[in-house]
Amino acid sequence: MLSEEEWAKGADEAVSLAKSHGVLMIGSICASTLETWKGMAQRMQEKGVGMIELNLGNPHYTAAPGLIGARISQAEDLLGEVIQTVTEAVTIPVIAKLSPQVSNIVHLAELAKRSGASAVTLSHRFQGLLIDVEKKEPLGSIPFGYGGPWMLPIAIGYVAKVSQEVGIPICGSGGIFGGKDVLQFLMAGATTIQITTAS
Amino acid sequence: MIQGTDLIRSMLKDIGDFCRIKGVRRIGDLVGSTLGKKGYYDRLPETARMGVRNGLICRTCFQKPCIEACFFDAIQKKVGDGSVEISEPCTAAVSASR
Fold this sequence. Notes:
The complex is a heterodimer.
Chain A: H1 4-20, E1 26-29, H2 34-46, E2 51-55, H3 70-73, H4 76-89, E3 94-97, H5 105-114, E4 119-122, E5 126-132, E6 137-146, H6 152-165, E7 170-173, H7 179-188, E8 192-194
Parallel strand pairs in A: 1-2, 2-3, 3-4, 4-7, 7-8
Antiparallel strand pairs in A: 5-6
Helix pairs in contact in A: 2-4, 4-5, 6-7
Chain B: H1 5-22, H2 40-43, H3 46-53, H4 68-75, H5 91-97
């Protein structure tokens, strides 16, 4: 866990590096109370971060207490409350990164837009479980976040649907491992993309 | 060194090659170019939309199973300023309907 000083130093260095290359820095937040969601967003804005992404679908934190992880995307009142709290506390654009494990992604994207989000990221990884049958133990934490190439058609499908029905800028994420994967996200309606596992 | 730099460089090259080969001048022209940009998708009956969503019908001509060439032919259509759009059935679809 980073100390406050270490975080501040790292944030200064990252923002400075991005600015020196003419790149916009987008900060990502994953908090557990409304106060920390709001406070972290304000700190990032103070540091010169250009946009903030709210991690509202983290699959790892479902077992943790508090206003954290995929449970936010899976409860409309929580989703609206977190987004509205942050967007009212900062002036820079706020992006809502949503869990794919929801009943109606279009409905949630509409809710995010109404709550003040400038864009949505579609989507986070899935929660899952794999078991080592020899050791009779779970592989990884419980629940574990699962993504990969198999997720590509699901994520692109979400982007296409939200693009057509909601009209909000979309960052595509999930299953990208090559340039043609990126092209598919763009053609489906995403304006930016994220890559994690492949990198 | 930023992690993934080589991968991102490789992806950008692939995207750049695609745009150059297909005559796409602005990346922005690709955004949303596949589904519904000009209203084709919305005018389809629900059964056809289901077919498109499930990849059973070409996303461009909506008349037959999708083949890559059909889709890319349509992508190459240009409008006045050199940008691309999908405003008409693709060449392959027209041939098929005849």
